[in-house]
C-alpha cells in the first residue's frame, strides 16, 4: 500500500480557506523553517479513499473476535460517543473557571464516587493518561507517603514474576529497587518467598488479582497483611478488574491504592480509538498525596482543590475528560446489577472457551476454574510437531480472528493468553474454538503451512527482529535515500 507521500502530486489539494480577516501573526526572527514543509498534496476523494483503505486493513472489535489476553478488548457502545459529544462536555475549555463548568465537575465527582464504590477506595484522581501512567502516579504517592513519615529506607517494591512488564518499569522510574518474588505451583504468590522478601526496606507490593494467569489468588488477604505488617503499602494493578468488578473490591482485599484502565474495564475506546485513562484511587489516609486538582465540594459549588501533600501534577489540566464521561456512561447504563453481570459473563466466557479447548491444547495451571482469561502452553506442541505459539497466532489471522496475547506471562513457555470478554456470544466462542482445533489438526498434517502463516492478510509474517532493531520512523523522499 502506498503512503500519502507516494500518492502526492504537486498542485493538488482540498483546502478552501476563507480570506484572512485578522491581522497576520509572524514568527520571531530566526524561528522560521529553513526548508519548506513537505506535506502530501491530494484531492479530497483520494484522501478519503486512502483512509478507507487503511480502515479495511485494520482489525478491531468491530471487525471480529479480538481475544487479546489482559487487554480486555470489549465492545464500546455508541452511546458513549454520543454522551461525550454533548455540547456541554465537548465545547468546554480547560482554562474556564470552575463556576462555568459545574456540569463537567459534577460528572467527575460522580465518576469518582461510583468508581470508589466499585474498588473500595475513598478518593480518586483522573489525571493519569493511561494504565502505566496510573502505576507511575500511584508509586509517586507511595514514595511521598514514606518520605513524609521519615521512612527514607523504604526503597524496594515487590513484584511477582507473573506481573505486567510495566510494573517493574514504573517502579524503576520512581527510583525504587524491584524485588521479584516467584509464583507457587498453583500460580499464586509464593507466601514463603514473600515473607522472606519483605522487611524494613519494603515500600510496597504491586499485584494484579486476578493475575496474568487468569487466577484469583486465594491467599490475597494474607498477602496484603504480610506487606502491611512489614510497613509497606499494597498497590492493586487494575488491568484485570473486569473479572471482579461488582463482585470483589480491591479495597476489601487489603489494597491501599489502585489504578484502573477505563479503556479496558469500563468500555471506552482502546488503542488507536483512544486516548486512554488510568485513574488512581486510594484509601483515605493517602488522599493528601493525590495529584493537584481534585474535585471537591466548596462554598459555591464544586471546585478543584489541591491536596496539602500533593505529588503535584502528572498531566496537563485534569486528564482525558471525555474518556471519563464515556466510562461514567457505561457505569450508569449498566447499573450495579449490570456491572456484576458483566464480570460474571467475562468469567463464564473464559471458562467455557478454556474447557472446550481442554484436550486439544495444554492449559497452563489448568486444574481449577479461571477468571476472565486463560493461558495455553504450546511447549509440548512445539517439541512434538515444531509448531510454535507464534505459528498458531499467525494462523488465526487467516480465519479473521485476532491472536491472543503471545509469549506472556513469561513464566509460561510458548504461552497464548486469551480473554474473550463478556461481550462475545456463544456462537463467536464456538467458532473460535473450532478454528483453534482446525489449526491444531493442521499441525499434524501440514505444519509447514503454519510456519508461513498468515497467507490471506495484506502483510505476511514480517521480520519482527529487524523491525525492532532498525525501525523506519519516517518517510524518506527518493533524494534522501542512500
From TrEMBL:
Modified residues (N6-(pyridoxal phosphate)lysine): 264
Enzyme class, UniProt record, top EC level: oxidoreductase
GO CC field: cytosol; glycine cleavage complex
This enzyme's EC code(s): 1.4.4.2
Superkingdom: Bacteria
InterPro entries from the UniProt entry: Aminotrans_V_dom (IPR000192), GcvPB (IPR023012), GDC-P_C (IPR049316), GDC_P (IPR020581), PyrdxlP-dep_Trfase (IPR015424), PyrdxlP-dep_Trfase_major (IPR015421), PyrdxlP-dep_Trfase_small (IPR015422)
Catalytic activity: N(6)-[(R)-lipoyl]-L-lysyl-[glycine-cleavage complex H protein] + glycine + H(+) = N(6)-[(R)-S(8)-aminomethyldihydrolipoyl]-L-lysyl-[glycine-cleavage complex H protein] + CO2
Glycine dehydrogenase C-terminal domain segment(s): 342-444
Stretches of the chain forming a coiled coil according to its record: none
Keyword Oxidoreductase: yes
Keyword terms, alphabetized: Oxidoreductase, Pyridoxal phosphate
SUPFAM superfamilies: PLP-dependent transferases (SSF53383)
One GO-annotated biological process of the protein: glycine decarboxylation via glycine cleavage system
A Pfam family that the UniProt record links to this protein: GcvP2_C
GO molecular function, one term: glycine binding
Subunit and interaction comment: The glycine cleavage system is composed of four proteins: P, T, L and H. In this organism, the P 'protein' is a heterodimer of two subunits.
Described purpose of this protein according to its UniProt entry: The glycine cleavage system catalyzes the degradation of glycine. The P protein binds the alpha-amino group of glycine through its pyridoxal phosphate cofactor; CO(2) is released and the remaining methylamine moiety is then transferred to the lipoamide cofactor of the H protein.
PANTHER family: GLYCINE DEHYDROGENASE (DECARBOXYLATING), MITOCHONDRIAL, GLYCINE DEHYDROGENASE, DECARBOXYLATING
Protein name: Probable glycine dehydrogenase (decarboxylating) subunit 2
Amino acid at each position: 500500500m502506498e503512503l500519502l507521500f507516494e500518492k502526492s502530486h504537486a498542485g493538488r489539494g482540498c483546502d478552501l480557506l476563507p480570506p484572512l480577516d485578522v491581522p497576520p501573526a509572524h514568527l520571531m526572527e530566526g524561528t522560521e523553517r529553513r526548508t519548506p514543509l513537505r506535506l502530501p498534496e491530494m484531492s479530497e476523494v483520494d484522501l478519503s479513499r486512502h483512509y478507507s483503505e487503511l480502515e479495511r486493513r485494520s482489525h478491531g472489535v468491530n471487525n471480529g473476535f479480538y481475544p487479546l489476553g489482559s487487554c480486555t478488548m470489549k465492545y464500546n457502545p455508541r452511546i458513549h460517543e454520543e454522551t461525550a459529544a454533548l455540547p456541554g462536555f465537548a465545547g468546554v475549555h480547560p482554562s474556564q473557571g470552575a463556576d462555568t463548568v459545574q456540569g463537567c465537575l459534577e460528572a467527575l465527582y460522580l465518576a469518582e464516587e461510583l468508581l470508589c464504590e466499585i474498588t473500595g477506595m475513598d478518593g480518586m484522581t483522573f489525571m493519569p493518561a493511561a494504565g502505566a501512567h496510573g502505576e507511575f502516579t500511584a508509586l509517586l504517592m507511595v514514595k511521598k507517603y514514606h518520605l513524609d513519615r521519615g521512612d527514607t529506607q523504604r526503597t524496594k517494591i515487590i513484584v511477582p514474576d507473573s506481573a505486567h512488564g510495566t510494573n517493574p518499569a514504573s517502579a524503576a522510574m520512581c527510583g525504587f529497587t524491584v524485588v521479584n518474588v516467584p509464583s507457587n505451583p498453583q500460580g499464586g504468590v509464593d507466601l514463603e518467598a514473600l515473607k522472606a522478601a519483605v522487611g524494613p526496606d519494603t515500600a510496597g507490593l504491586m499485584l494484579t488479582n486476578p493475575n496474568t494467569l487468569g487466577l484469583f489468588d486465594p491467599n490475597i488477604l494474607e498477602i496484603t497483611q504480610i506487606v502491611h505488617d512489614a510497613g509497606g503499602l499494597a498497590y492493586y494493578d487494575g488491568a484485570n478488574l473486569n473479572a471482579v468488578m461488582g463482585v470483589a473490591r480491591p479495597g476489601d482485599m487489603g489494597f491501599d491504592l489502585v489504578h484502573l484502565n477505563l479503556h479496558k474495564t469500563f468500555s471506552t475506546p482502546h488503542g488507536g480509538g483512544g486516548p486512554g485513562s488510568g485513574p488512581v484511587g486510594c484509601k483515605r489516609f493517602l488522599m493528601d498525596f493525590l495529584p493537584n486538582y481534585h474535585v471537591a465540594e466548596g462554598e459555591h459549588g464544586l471546585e478543584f482543590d489541591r491536596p496539602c501533600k500533593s505529588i503535584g501534577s502528572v498531566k496537563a489540566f485534569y486528564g482525558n475528560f471525555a474518556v471519563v464521561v464515556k466510562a461514567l456512561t457505561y457505569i450508569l447504563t449498566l447499573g450495579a446489577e449490570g456491572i456484576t453481570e458483566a464480570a460474571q459473563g467475562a468469567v463464564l466466557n473464559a471458562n467455557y472457551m478454556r474447557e472446550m479447548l481442554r484436550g486439544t491444547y495444554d492449559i497452563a495451571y489448568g486444574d481449577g476454574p479461571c477468571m476472565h482469561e486463560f493461558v495455553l502452553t504450546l511447549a509440548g506442541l512445539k517439541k512434538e510437531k515444531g509448531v510454535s505459539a507464534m505459528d498458531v497466532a499467525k494462523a488465526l489471522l487467516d480465519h479473521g480472528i485476532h491472536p491472543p496475547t503471545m509469549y506472556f506471562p513469561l513464566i509460561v513457555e510458548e504461552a497464548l493468553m486469551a480473554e474473550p470478554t463478556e461481550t462475545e456470544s456463544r456462537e463467536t466462542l464456538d467458532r473460535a474454538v473450532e478454528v483453534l482445533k482446525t489449526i491444531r489438526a493442521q499441525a499434524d498434517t501440514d505444519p509447514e503451512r503454519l510456519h508461513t502463516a498468515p497467507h490471506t492478510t495484506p502483510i505476511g509474517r514480517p521480520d519482527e527482529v529487524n523491525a525492532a532493531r532498525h525501525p523506519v520512523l519516517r518517510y524518506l523522499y527518493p533524494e534522501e535515500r542512500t
